[in-house]
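Sample entry copied in:
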Amino acid sequence: MFGRERTPFHVVIKAAFEEARQRGDRRMGTEHLLLGLLHEPRAARALGVDVAGARAALEELDKAALRMLGLEVGDMPRVPRKHPPVPGTALTSSARAVINQAIKGTTMKTRSAEAPRHLVLALLQQGRPDPVAQLVDQLGIDRAAVRSRIA
């Protein structure tokens, strides 16, 4: 779906798919898009978060969700497991909508450079119960401040 292109936007999308694979998720969601964006240095600076901190916050959200179901998990082992790649068409409906919104916010000439910025803006617009909204809140990202920095 996203080919072998090396534009910043494609690098972000591929990183998001890799983040989903590493977590063992079957589909790429908006939370993975945020993690993928953090592989892009300008986006990480604008958001004021690093990828390791975002991964830890997402793991904490997962544990909290399990506790709400009555399942207590201790420290999860750090031994990486081998997960199959997430298919390029396996996106959540929210992730697909956010990607489409980011693409529509650009022109063909500016897409490679501007799409990551539009992706950040689209992700910041997401509200609860979308996983990325919960992750943004968990990380303490000030949406208005980020919008003003990248606008």
Notes: The chain has one domain: 8-150. The CA atoms of residues 96 and 122 lie 11 Å apart.
